[in-house]
Please model this.
Amino acid sequence: MAQSNNRGKAVSSTGQAMVRMTIGIVVLVVLTALLFFVAPEGFYPWAKAIHILAVISWMAGMLYLPRLFVYHVDAEKGSVQSETFKVMERRLLRGIINPAMIVTWVFGLWLAWKIFGFQGGWLHAKIGLVLLLSAVHGYLAGAVRKFAEDRNEKPARHWRIVNEIPTLLMIAIVILVVVKPF
Ligand code: HEM
Model:
């Protein structure tokens, strides 16, 4: 009974998180469109600022989620602790990581097209690494589903190692875009 109450609360809080996320995205799209039409010449720095803010949010989530898995592995299946981890993981994925990835891609591709015409070795390498990062994102999203269904079989050590992959990709991506070595 208590557990089904907890599940009910989790579902309704996920619904609220989705509503907040949708409102956030709509507000961002409207403000961006306004800026684009009112001052197109000043759009580049704003697009870059929004891109960097989205990157920070995406990376924060991508670094935190596997860390949650490390602790979740040790929580007994069906325990309050395990159910709490499920809610935290789902909210982090749907409320932050997914929308942040979409905004990063949209503004990153706009910058790549408008400012650089998709030219430059550094840009091609960067997009390649971001595709890899997006694949890791997909893998972590699949893991959230498995943990939610109590089907994870990977040990804590696996998630500790996975935790390092976004870090390494982030370092390489930032060096490529700032230093532009080739
Ligand atoms: C989703 C695909 C992405 C594309 C197509 C993309 C493309 C770009 C482009 C064209 C710029 C402008 C560079 C300039 O003005 O010199 C930029 C800026 C930047 N991007 Fe991305 N990006 C993507 C994702 C990412 C990711 C995942 C990260 C970090 C992990 C990142 C970090 C940055 C940073 C830090 C800047 C500012 C660089 C500066 O002003 O010197 N980007 N991005």
Residues 2-179 form one domain. The helical segments are 2-38, 43-74, 80-114, 121-148, 156-179. The chain has one domain: 2-179. The chain is about 85% helix and 0% strand.
